[in-house]
Amino acid sequence: MGSSIAHKILVKKSGNKPIDEGDVIYAEPDLVLLYDWPGFDGFMRNIRINPDKIVLNIDHFFLPNTELAAKTHRNYRETAKKYGIKHFYDIGNNGIGFHLAAEKGHIKPGMLIVHADPHVSTFGAFGAYCVGVGGDLMSAFLMDEVWLRVPQVIKVNLSGNFAAGVTSRDLFEHILADLGPDGAVGQVLEFTGPALAAMSMDSRMGLCSSMQYLSAETAIINPDETTYQYVRSRTEEPFEAVLSDPDAAYARVLNYDVSGLEPMVVTPPDVYYVKRVGEVAGIDIDQAFIGTCANGRLDDLRLAARILKGRKVHPRVRFLVTPVTQQTMLDAVKEGIIDTFLQAGVLVGPPTCGPCYGGFGYLLPGETCLSTGTLNIPGRMGSTEAKIYMANPATVAASAIEGKITDPRKYF
User: Fold this and answer.
1) Residues of the chain under the 70 pLDDT cut
2) Domains with residue ranges and CATH for the chain
3) Could you tell me the maximum CA-CA distance found in the chain, to the nearest angstrom?
């Protein structure tokens, strides 16, 4: 019986010893990532690993608005200088870390990557095993190893073609609605199939970004030529790709034909209330937002610009767009996307997680926002009496034009 890509990577990173599902192993990460959340700087009071294995970035507080945030940034700068951490991305050369690290060429197939935040599953799109370990990240800095439980793997076969206005985000929401919050406890989702082969790296990263809502350990995709082209365009460093064996064993196999998918909308009060856009169409919105590690990439901006071209944002709606990185912003400028946004009445902001966690764009009681964010619990973006709906970038753009939740397919 063969092995999955996930198990092969864990074997390699834990000393090439036999492992079984359920085993607790100690593995050496190839890369340790961290962003600027206050308190996270305390994980690095002592660093005893190769500083070249560390990537730090500023993304939550793109400009510190409190003394605590400012001190966090200062501590990062001092730590980077003290330990010779070359891969520190400060303000002006920054972006949301769950895209920036790939853009800068740090993410490669076959790696084991750890972060405090489970959204690091995003990088599973590269054929890397990427897992959020919370406070245990300190052990990576101090001992150059982390403990992990060897997971079961769920294989997800994807067939068909996405319809216009439907994205990989809608696929994830559909899977979440099917499986529920406990649908993959401690397991890994391995995505494969002809539909996936046709997806861009932006789309694959979006698909893999929020596995924690399934209680999953992470997600992973076998690397292919699309992966290799992306990576080789960003780094000359060698890498050793790992692939699942054809006869690998899986806990279960799921099959999805993406051709029949519709735009999905996540409704209050949390991420598990997923509906088809037609079920909530017509709900008035006060604010629209495109950005975050889920949907602020160039593909997302292109999709929104296609809808906004030659149109105006509804006069009642505040519409904010934050590209995921500085480079994404620059690419969007070169393609005329930012010009389209500005002419439509969009406020374009800097690369930051800010609006997603309530850093700015505060909602008042009774207000409603439609966002491409990652979480919509009460109080996430302001008042606990505000409502947050989440959807793909096309749905957000179409809704911003009409002032109410709208099926974007009418614009294609």
Assistant:
1) none
2) 5-259 (3.30.499.10), 266-411 (3.30.499.10)
3) 62
